[in-house]
Write a structure and sequence with these properties.
Blueprint (H helix, E strand, L loop, with lengths): L1 H8 L4 H12 L4 H16 L2 H22 L7 H18 L5 H21 L1 H5 L4 H42 L15 H10 L3 H24 L1
Helix pairs in contact: 1-2, 1-3, 4-5, 4-8, 5-10, 6-8, 8-10
Length: 225
């Protein structure tokens, strides 16, 4: 029960988790410890922050699901190692995201903007680097609303969201993939889908870099407390 509570409170604001674990440690009676742990878990599971963080975990988990189930998803060993490292950083960074409501709202807005752009504009589909502008705008908006931690969390999450939106769109609607392969390709639609998803690996790697900065900023704040 104690171990389960420890795992669950990691998804909550750090102050809540520390208070719950400190109170639990002060109880000696096993029955009282069980009752308190169950009460804490009920409180945690009813808190909206938990679901926002679970959503962030699902966002990171969607990346390998799209990468490795789509065409051309096996890749080289070196590429798999790089992606694996980026995902490991991503899962670690999720636990350090602060200002979750701001991050969630701004990331959702950015993902929606880019998704609508992909659906409606051949120009956006042909210029995937334009997504960087969406990420920057989201990060700036979050910084104004919640400061450094909100900006880093939003940049991290929006990079992942842009990758998931693009890869998911081309997986569901391969006809939308821009023509980037030669006309004599054996399977133009399939190869266009693969080639059109590749540029978004940049957003995945950028999310890892921002994730490192996010973890470092969160730890600096914890030390300062």
């Amino acid at each position: 029960m104690t171990l389960m509570l420890s795992l669950v409170v990691r998804l909550m604001p750090r102050e809540w988790g520390r208070a719950m674990q400190a109170e639990l440690a002060a109880l000696d009676d096993p029955q009282a410890r069980r009752r308190f742990a169950l009460g804490c878990m009920r409180a945690v599971l009813s808190h909206s922050t938990l679901w926002l963080r679970v959503g962030a975990i699902a966002l990171v988990a969607a990346v390998p699901a799209l990468l490795f189930t789509g065409p051309g998803g096996t890749g080289e060993v070196s590429g798999l190692c790089i992606v694996g490292l980026a995902l490991a950083i991503g899962f670690g960074a999720v636990a350090h995201v602060r200002a979750l409501p701001i991050v969630a709202r701004t990331t959702a807005a950015g993902a929606l903007v880019w998704w609508l752009a992909l659906l409606a504009s051949s120009g956006a589909r042909a210029h995937p680097h334009w997504a960087l502008a969406v990420i920057v705008v989201c990060a700036v908006a979050a910084a104004r609303a919640g400061g450094e931690h909100a900006a880093l969390g939003t940049a991290f999450a929006t990079c992942l969201a842009v990758f998931v939106v693009a890869a998911g769109t081309y997986a569901a609607l391969p006809r939308l993939a821009p023509d980037v392969v030669p006309s004599n390709a054996e399977n133009p639609r399939l190869e266009n889908q693969i080639e059109s998803t590749d540029p978004y690996i940049g957003e995945l790697l950028l999310s890892a870099l921002v994730g490192v900065a996010l973890i470092a900023a969160a730890r600096r704040s914890d030390v300062a407390l």
